[in-house]
Design the sequence.
């Protein structure tokens, strides 16, 4: 869900379709891995989003800027290409083997919640995501960057005339979306194992989440994430063979019936 | 006359192809694979190049085509081990599937269309993956087939090879299976079909819809009908390609339906050049050839997909028309410049 958040922010605010979003996740996971091994888990979780944000800024300057005004098809293609390059570069550096974090002791325990035992780290992760969601929302709503970019989508020329730097604000928002993915990559990896292919593996379900919630809708991504998670665990319970199938059926149904998603505005469909 | 030149040159190229790649590390079997996969890329080009629809799920037609073709010889009609029949069943099945999915998907645009096709492809992936009694799931199908190709009253075993004949640096005729000849003939037919299609009124209307859908609606065309037709034809060709793959290799697996496979078709077509007739085939050939040569190299072996990704990004950024498209564009520019020079007033767009 938190990965989906970055994806939807970038699409919603920059109108950029980003197939490289999974690449941000996996870069974050590997940066986190290296820093965790040498310094510690907390340092890893801090270093990952910073590194990924820097990477995203470089990518934005070098490549993606030329594609902001292009049709979505071109954006899909170029970000898809970037995703391959990132995945394969990581594969060369870290080889394709699956890696796991060595987690410190405080992470490994579990907490008695009265009705059930639950791993401490997962609880901390869940709480962290809630805090993150609120922080990002506040950033978009309350800072000038969020304002400029949102206004820039409606009328770029006017915003620039009024002295707003749409370019710079766009880069900041893009880096923010990427940093979110990087942060999640580092923070989630003690729970899931990592390998270079994971980026793309996570990208596809997060598209499902974003589509169901409504492409570009902030709360849509949050609720879509909860909904997809719930749907998948219910199917796993009652009909395990269909648990992967069901989320794509849901995605297709949403696209067919209301392409703007459950919580999206309907003006964006003509892309 | 031009017609004859087109067929003659294409046929000549197809005859020389398996030998031409021999000195640079290719082999006839690779040539066969390239042609078979290339047919799917040609079909995909009808969507992305001519109709402007980026389908991110072409692998579903490719994979299902390969499964249906193999199941036809193994399960459905084992009493008639015929390649024609098997291909026919695969094409028919996939065409109906493409028609239905096309009717559902072409109403959407851009990212929504891409994601909906991706969702359908994922559904088929997991259905094939889970329907173990029919598809054997993760293991894939390996079929011992004696399917032959009926020609008139005789039937040909395509796994046979041509007679021994040394060609020096270009290998030996003996290395070429009848399969290559069959794939080459089908490729020629598909190319001729596509050429006729994009030059027909249908092709022109499709391009008009891509450039300006609203205007083409005002003129009186129903864009949806044309897009569904394009989607179905592309699906049909992809199903044919999948069917050939299944029969040629006598095996298939669930990765033929994967997102990676769908992505490969995109890469092949874009690198070679969408909106060109031969581009997708050239792109398929180039990438599959590089994959073969580079991944066999002890130093760069692990890096071939990185190279593929870099080529892909480089083409999108520097040669948006693809390898062949950029060449064509230069010629078109030159022609336009000439036209403007000849009649400076009327020549203006």
Sequence:
């Amino acid at each position: 869900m938190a990965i989906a958040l970055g994806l939807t922010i970038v699409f919603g605010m920059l109108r950029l379709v980003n197939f490289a979003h999974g690449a941000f996740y996996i870069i974050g996971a590997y940066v986190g891995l290296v820093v965790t091994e040498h310094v510690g888990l907390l340092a890893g979780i801090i270093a990952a989003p910073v590194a990924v944000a820097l990477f995203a800024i470089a990518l934005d300057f070098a490549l993606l800027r030329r594609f902001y005004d292009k049709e979505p098809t071109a954006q899909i293609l170029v970000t898809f290409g970037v995703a391959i390059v990132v995945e394969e570069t990581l594969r060369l550096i870290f080889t394709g083997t699956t890696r796991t974090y060595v987690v410190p002791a405080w992470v490994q325990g579990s907490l008695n919640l009265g009705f059930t035992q639950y791993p401490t780290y997962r609880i901390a992760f869940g709480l962290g995501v809630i805090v993150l969601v609120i922080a990002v929302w506040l950033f978009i709503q309350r800072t000038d960057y969020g304002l400029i970019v949102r206004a820039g989508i409606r009328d770029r020329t006017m915003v620039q005339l009024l002295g707003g730097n749409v370019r710079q604000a766009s880069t900041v928002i893009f880096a923010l979306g990427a940093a979110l993915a990087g942060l999640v990559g580092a923070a989630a990896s003690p729970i899931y194992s990592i390998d270079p292919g994971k980026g793309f593996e996570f990208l596809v379900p997060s598209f499902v989440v974003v589509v169901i919630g409504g492409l570009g809708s902030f709360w849509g991504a949050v609720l879509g994430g909860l909904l997809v998670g719930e749907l998948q665990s219910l199917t796993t319970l009652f009909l395990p063979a269909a648990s992967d199938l069901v989320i794509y059926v849901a995605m297709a149904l949403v696209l067919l019936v209301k392409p703007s998603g459950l919580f999206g505005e309907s003006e964006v469909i003509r892309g | 006359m031009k017609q004859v030149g087109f067929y003659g040159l294409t046929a000549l190229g197809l005859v020389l192809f398996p030998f031409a790649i021999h000195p640079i590390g290719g082999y006839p079997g690779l040539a066969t694979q390239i042609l078979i996969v290339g047919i799917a890329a040609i079909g995909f080009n009808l969507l992305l190049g001519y109709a402007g629809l980026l389908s991110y799920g072409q692998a579903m037609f490719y994979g299902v085509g390969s499964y249906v073709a193999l199941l036809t010889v193994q399960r459905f009609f084992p009493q008639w081990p015929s390649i024609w029949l098997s291909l026919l069943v695969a094409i028919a099945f996939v065409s109906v599937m493409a028609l239905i999915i096309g009717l559902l998907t072409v109403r959407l645009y851009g990212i929504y269309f891409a994601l909906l096709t991706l969702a359908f492809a994922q559904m088929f992936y997991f259905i094939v993956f889970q329907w173990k009694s029919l598809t054997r799931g993760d293991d894939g199908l390996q079929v011992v087939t004696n399917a032959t190709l009926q020609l008139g009253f005789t039937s040909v075993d395509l796994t046979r090879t041509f007679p021994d004949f040394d060609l020096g640096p270009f290998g030996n005729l003996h290395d070429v299976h009848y399969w290559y000849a069959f794939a080459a003939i089908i490729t020629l037919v598909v190319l001729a079909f596509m050429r006729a299609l994009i030059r027909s009124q249908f092709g022109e209307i499709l391009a008009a819809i891509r450039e300006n859908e609203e205007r083409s609606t005002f003129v009186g065309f129903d864009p949806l009908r044309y897009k569904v037709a394009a989607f179905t034809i592309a699906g049909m060709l992809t199903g044919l390609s999948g069917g050939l793959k299944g029969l040629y290799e006598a095996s298939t697996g669930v990765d033929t339906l994967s997102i990676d496979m769908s992505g490969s078709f995109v890469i092949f077509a874009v690198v070679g050049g969408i909106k060109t007739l031969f581009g997708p085939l050239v792109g398929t050939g180039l990438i599959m050839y590089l994959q073969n040569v580079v991944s066999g190299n002890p130093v760069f072996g692990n890096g071939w997909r990185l190279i593929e990704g870099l080529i892909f990004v480089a083409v999108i950024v520097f040669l948006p028309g693809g390898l062949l498209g950029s060449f064509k564009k230069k010629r078109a520019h030159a022609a336009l410049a000439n036209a403007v020079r000849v009649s400076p007033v009327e020549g203006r767009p």
